[in-house]
Amino acid sequence: MERIIIIGGGLAAVSAAKTLRTEGFEGTVTVLSEEGQFPYDRPPLSKAVLQGTADAQSTCLLNAEAAQNLGIDLQLNQRVEAIDRDAHVVRLSSGASLPYDRLLIATGSRARMLDGPFAGKANVFYLRTIADAERLRAQMVPGKRLLSIGAGWIGLEVAATARKSGMEAVVVELADRLCARSLPKDVGVALADVHRGNGTVIHLNTSIVTVGGDDRVESVTLSNGETLLVDMVVVGIGAIANDAIAREAGLETGNGIIVDEFLRTSDPLIFAAGDVAAMRVGGGQPTRMESWANAQDQAAAAARNLLGKREPYAINTWFWSDQYDLNIQMIGDNQPAGGTLLVRKGEGKSFTRFSAIGDRLVGAICFGAPRDMAIVRRLMSKGYAVTDDSLITAPDLRKLL
Ligand SMILES: Cc1cc2nc3c(=O)[nH]c(=O)nc-3n(C[C@H](O)[C@H](O)[C@H](O)COP(=O)(O)OP(=O)(O)OC[C@H]3O[C@@H](n4cnc5c(N)ncnc54)[C@H](O)[C@@H]3O)c2cc1C
């Protein structure tokens, strides 16, 4: 095997390319990214970069020099239009074709867009790329009124950054809670309290009924009858897997590219990892994660398996978010059916919330308690048995290790 092509220019692509080299692969590694920027990290885009406390350059994951030192052929502005599985080539938007022996698809996901009255309006923003963050940041002026549509992680982080930047912020969410797909209801309530305490207005169970303005959104009327005047709108209603080239190439897809526990697609020469990959283990439902830690680890595992290892991958469930001065971290299953809940109070409004099934610790959320996460990980990996309420009462969690 001589030629490995990685499609995509995000964290997963970089993690895989670096891993191929650390594993000693000496053949050609080509990374094809449709973006014009060197690969960069996305989490700071809704936090420090948006607030202006970090510049966009600081997010770079692989620059020209680092790529050269690692012998990675990094090609920017190269969109892969098609995968020809019979000829073992990828076809680029430039018209060129490149042959591969093994292929990794790490095309990530893109922001889901709102159509209807929001489409094409000059002050409606999405946040996925550096260019999005820079456009948005230019509008983040103290006193302006921001409307966040969707109380998912991105919408909430942008609202928090807006408040920190001296703006007014309102979040409108259809569901009855924040981050409905990933946070248990009680933690959603605690997070809503933090937002309200910082002056963000949150409307749950609410839809937007009418939109006022011609080229720009100037006002919205909500299903509760309230009318809001707005200067800018950020839409954070989820992400869609960039799986079209895989689907068109006849690979098995369905909300992402279906891979097995070795990150192999339905074609044994083609692997997928990161936001675009939906991993099926056994007969279970495919799981697609949209998180930094999973993109990094899954792509590294895919790279090793591309090289012929048979290393089953277990999804990395660790996730974090920063909003105002609050850091939230979560790991494992935090809404297990029939599970037990133990909540350890920390300083102020902080807490660490453990989930157990029987005596098995299966998940935890550290809400304003980032230092607990390192201990939680160790407790989980050593198989800590939850036989009493020590997780709540122990004066020092480390003593349980
Ligand atoms: C604003 C923001 C904040 C976030 N904050 C957090 C956080 O706090 N914590 C956390 O855990 N996660 C966070 N995430 C999620 C995390 O950043 C993603 O899970 C991670 O970036 C996924 O990496 P990826 O490489 O799989 O995909 P992506 O980062 O989406 O990269 C895919 C790349 O492939 C390119 N591409 C797509 N199609 C083609 C093609 N046909 N040809 C060539 N190139 C193509 C894309 O342009 C893109 O550059 C955040 C994401 C965003 C957008």
Q: What do these coordinates show?
A:
This protein is an alpha/beta fold and 401 residues long. It has three domains: 3-110 and 239-306, 3-Layer(bba) Sandwich (FAD/NAD(P)-binding domain); 113-235, FAD/NAD(P)-binding domain (3-Layer(bba) Sandwich), CATH 3.50.50.60; 325-400, Enolase-like, domain 1. Helices cover 23% and strands 28% of the residues. The chain contains ten helices and 26 strands. The strands form seven sheets. Strands 3-2-1-7-19 form a five-stranded parallel beta sheet. Helix 1 (11-22) packs parallel to helix 8. The longest helix has 15 residues, at 292-306. The protein starts with a strand and ends in an 8-residue tail after the last helix. The model has no long low-confidence stretch (mean pLDDT 97). Flavin-adenine dinucleotide (FAD) binds next to helix 1, helix 8 and strand 22.
Rg over CA atoms, rounded to whole Å, is 22 Å
Ligand kinds: flavin-adenine dinucleotide
For the record, the CATH architecture of the largest domain stands as 3-Layer(bba) Sandwich
Euclidean distance between termini CA atoms: 45 Å
Helical/strand content category: alpha/beta
* CATH fold-level assignment of the largest domain: FAD/NAD(P)-binding domain
Helix content: 10-25%
InterPro entries: FAD-oxidoreductase/Apoptosis, FAD/NAD-bd_sf, FAD/NAD-binding_dom, FAD/NAD-linked_Rdtase_dimer_sf, Reductase_C
Enzyme class: oxidoreductase
Organism: Actibacterium naphthalenivorans
Keywords: Dioxygenase, FAD, Flavoprotein, Oxidoreductase
